[in-house]
Amino acid sequence: MPTTDSLSATQTPKKLALVNDLAGYGRCSLTVALPIVSQLGVQGCPVPTAILSNHTGYPTWHMTDYTSELSSYLDAWKSLDISFDGILTGFLGNQAQADIIRQFLADFKKENTLYILDPAMGDNGRVYATCGTQIQKSMRELVASADAITPNVTEACLLTGTAYRPDFTQKELLQMAQKLLKMGPKQVVITGISCKSYIGNLCMTAGESTLLRTKKVPQSRHGTGDIFSAILAAELVKVASADEELSIERLSLRHEILTAAVKKASGFVRKCLLVSDAAAVPEPEGVCFEKILYQLK
Predict the structure, then answer these.
(1) Which distant-in-sequence residues (6+ apart) come within 8 Å of 146 by Cβ?
(2) DSSP 8-state symbol, 152
(3) Is the N or the C terminus of the chain less surrounded, counting Cβ atoms within 10 Å?
């Protein structure tokens, strides 16, 4: 019979550092990621890169760039000798932030710390206004140190120097994923692939690939990528931490672990979209995930 002490020890949440902006309204970035990882039993530790009144899909917003505070924020963590089971990085607004995050990884990414990179640089063939050539170069450098990356098709093109097209064949996408693997990560998920009436996510590890399809929901919304990457990161961190024999290197070669996490993430995103449409939630307000958060286990 387990003692109370042993039960509490096994239930200690794993820690996942979440590097992203914080939007007060509009359901995206940290506002979405924190409740998602908490529901999955993981402690989310936010690293805000900017603080916005609402996301920039609205006609007006207020933003406070947090770059000047980031180093001091992270130095305080370093002085406390804090450690993390995983680190998830998303949108970076400028080159200074990219440099700070590289140092953050040098300080906090230990042998068994899983690093997941969502290289937010653009979508639908368009590059974000803040994502110049230097940021793209820095993202490629971060890719080299990541264990898993989740670029959409546009971002996969930017990382590999491939001209964007909306109609890549599966063979071409596989070749692009192979190029990404050669850049350093052990696991690659190319997200948001349009497959007629489905949305595809191409999962690749060394020597194995799977194209997973989820039935498309017509209305796209803000925050779906943040939900997807948060679920993926939390699931990978939980698996890696639950088995002390499963090193980061071995986890990265377990294709079935990656595909299971992607299935959970894409399935929940689809449910969120359907619920949001049924509730007639305005598109800028993102996905109404609160209604079904209890279903995420």
Answers:
(1) 115, 116, 117, 184, 185
(2) B
(3) N
Q: pTM of the prediction?
A: 0.91
The rounded distance, in Å, linking the Cα atoms of 39 and 16 is 13
The single-letter DSSP state of residue 164 is P
- Count helices and strands in the chain by DSSP H and E runs: 10, 11
194: burial class by Cβ within 10 Å (0-12, 13-18, 19+)? middle
Q: What is the pLDDT of residues 217-268, one digit of tens each?
A: 987 898 899 999 999 999 999 987 555 555 555 555 589 999 999 999 999 9
Between CA 16 and CA 218 the distance in angstroms is: 32
Helix axis angle, 95-108 relative to 67-79, nearest 10°? 10
Q: Confirm if 289 and 222 have CB atoms less than 8 A apart.
A: no
Give the whole-angstrom CA distance, residue 74 versus residue 105: 11
DSSP conformational letter for 279: T
Q: What are phi and psi of 191, to 5 degrees?
A: -100, 165
Asked if 102 contacts 141 with a C-beta cutoff of 8 angstroms, the reply is yes
